[in-house]
Design brief:
185 residues, alpha/beta, 6 helices, 26% strand, globular
């Protein structure tokens, strides 16, 4: 039986390079959230020479817009957003040091090329299980763009957030590899 693989932020190059497409891992530590509106603002800030809301080095961004928390909980449901919505912005953020992204669905060729160029990784989170994902969050705080509501950038502390390596640092893509596998049957 395979041992449960837990990786902790900040995420280091050696750890990222050791992960292979299709592998299940559990993330612990700090993860930031942000969706399209936050990504757009971050890219506008980059162009204007303004600071980012968090240091990208070793950080992970989770494409999610969490629901408000129930009393006594740090966060509500926190399911992944379709990653393709961030494809326009991801390469620019990766050029500035971002390497780890979490979401759901396919990425375009430019993002895959940026992942390989920067030795990054893209994790697929479990869609449709937002309440389960929310139970992995130990704390949450808005750190930027509070006016965006659920799309504000949040700093989450997670424990064993389940994800699958969708695109590894070599560009192996579980989505396209899976389609090729089924096309030959």
């Amino acid at each position: 039986m395979n041992e449960k693989k837990i990786i902790t932020s900040p995420f280091h190059d050696d750890t990222i390079k050791s992960l292979k497409a299709g592998e299940m891992v559990y993330l612990s530590g700090v993860v930031y959230t942000g969706r399209d509106a936050a990504h757009k603002r971050m890219c506008e800030s980059l162009k204007a020479g303004m600071p980012m809301p968090f240091d990208f080095q070793g950080a992970a961004i989770y494409y999610a817009g969490p629901c408000p928390p129930k009393p006594g909980k740090p966060i509500g449901s926190v399911g992944p957003t379709t990653s393709g919505r961030m494809d326009l912005y991801a390469p620019a953020l990766m050029d500035k040091g971002l390497k780890v992204m979490i979401g759901k669905g396919l990425r375009d060729t430019e993002v895959k090329n940026s992942i390989v160029k920067h030795g990054g990784i893209y994790f697929a989170a479990i869609g449709g299980a937002a309440a389960l994902m929310g139970k992995c969050v130990e704390s949450a705080e808005v750190i930027a763009y509070e006016d965006l509501g659920t799309e504000a950038v949040r700093r989450l502390v997670v424990k064993e957030l389940p994800v699958i390596v969708a695109i590894d640092s070599m560009g192996n893509d579980m989505y396209t590899e899976g389609r090729k596998q089924y096309a030959t049957k």
